[in-house]
Amino acid sequence: MVWTDDLLIQFLDYAAEHAPDLHPLLHLMAYRGPRCGEACGLLDAEVRLAKGEVSLVNQIATHSYEAHQKRRKSHAGNREVILDPDTVAVLTADKARRAAWRLAAGKDWPDTGLFFVRPDGRAWHPNSVTQRFRRLVKQAGLPPIRLHDVRHGAATLALDAGVDIKVVSDQLGHSTTTLTRDTYQSVVKRLHHEAAAAVALKIRSGQGRTA
Length: 211
Fold this sequence. Notes:
By secondary structure, this protein is mostly helical.
């Protein structure tokens, strides 16, 4: 299940007000579709806000709840993601907020090298992000979905907006467009139906014209 555009906006607005420390990470997932572990493991050095780019080359993985950083090994998994202006603005504000947290913490601030961190400077644990997400969804009174469905929603919205499937596949880190097509087959099929209807409408509107 994925949310509609209106429900997604409603959730992000709620998160911005009630979970400002976590909202930027959730915003990136909703808009650009990284996995939770990829968002948690986003390196500060791989964020280029002036260019509107981030490189996903690191992730935080969990094993028996223990979290650890590891570099992504696959070519598809290591990828550059282009940011829209709204996301650049959200991440820019978050970077300034992080600088204020660091100044307040002084020598107690841990140097994780990560872009998204908790107010005390520690890394976000993917399981904690998932738990907070569930609580926020419930508190906001929205239809329940999984955190991973936010990633699905980003892909669905992109396809619905007419973004080429190869671009969406690269954005998600899929190894082939076949994986993207199979995962979002219903969306792709609906877009084909809409395209067919648009062609038929164009043909009908041209009937009766004289050369």
